Amino acid sequence: MKAQKEKVYAKGFKGFNPGMTCRGKQYKEDTVFTEKEAKMCEKGMHFCESPLAVLGYYPLLNDNGELSEFAKVEALAPVETEENKSVTTKLKVGKKLSLGEFIREAVKFLLGKGTTERTKASSGSYSKLAASGDDSKLAASGAGSSLAASGSYSKLAASGDASIVVSAGRFCSVQVGKAHCIAASMGEGGRVKGALGASLVCAEWDSRTLLCVKHAKVDGKRIKADTWYTVKNGKWVKEE
């Protein structure tokens, strides 16, 4: 007789320190974890529905320049939710996501949740803008904005604090204007630019083959502020 499949109360994403630890607890891939109680910010295991919300608790790069780790999760017990975070007593942790997979999940989430006009601008805080057509143009100036595009030749820019801007299309330009923001271009021929303290992510492709995904913090020395960068031969290259 087949074992009955457990009920999934919610799905989402969880962030970890390097080594898959969170709040002193060691996690592993493809494993179910349980705790006796769940109380927001105190007890239980926490996760977010949105992959971008996770970055509010685990930054892409920590203070040592190390990449945080991320995984898809499923809550197998009732969930308490407050704002963008949930907590449960039973959590199934799936496979760890690569940086590229995590960024693609963020794009997919925004395309499913956000506004999908090809040209859109917003000045409000916590805006969510998304576009799937080629040559899209998205801009936001409010704090905590999230922008995503999957079409080719798109241009995305955010000037507010704690903004996250990602593209999956070919030959896209992505820029952020404040520290503690993320600019990511995951398609072929992409380029990124950020203010001092921002995090940059850029992929290198050979035709349809992904060669590498590079990440760096704009430190003003190795990676200059307000300067366009792309990745060639596995290295950051400044565009003239």
Overall description:
By secondary structure, the chain is mainly β. The protein folds into 2 domains: 10-97, no CATH class; 103-238, no CATH class. The chain has helices at 51-54, 99-113; strands at 10-16, 21-22, 25-26, 31-34, 45-47, 69-75, 80-82, 85-88, 90-97, 119-122, 128-131, 137-140, 146-149, 155-158, 164-167, 173-176, 182-185, 191-194, 199-206, 209-217, 229-232, 235-238. The strands form 6 sheets. Strands 11-13-15-17-19-20 form a 6-stranded mixed beta sheet, covered by helices on one side. The radius of gyration is 18 Å and the shape is globular.
Name the descriptors:
single chain; six-stranded mixed beta sheet; mainly beta; five-stranded parallel beta sheet; 240 residues; 8% helix; 2 domains
**Which regions have little confidence, pLDDT < 50, spanning 5+ residues?**
none
> Strand order across the biggest sheet?
11-13-15-17-19-20
Query: Could you describe the largest sheet, including whether it forms a barrel?
Result: 6 strands, mixed
How would you state the average pLDDT, rounded? 89
What is the CA-atom radius of gyration, in angstroms?
A: 18 Å
Summed up, the helix count is 2
Q: State the helicity in percent bands.
A: under 10%
Strand content: 35-45%
Structural class: mainly beta
Total number of distinct structural domains? 2
Which sequence of SSEs, written as H and E, runs from N to C? EEEEEHEEEEHEEEEEEEEEEEEE
Q: Distance between termini?
A: 66 Å
* Total number of strands: 22
Shape: globular
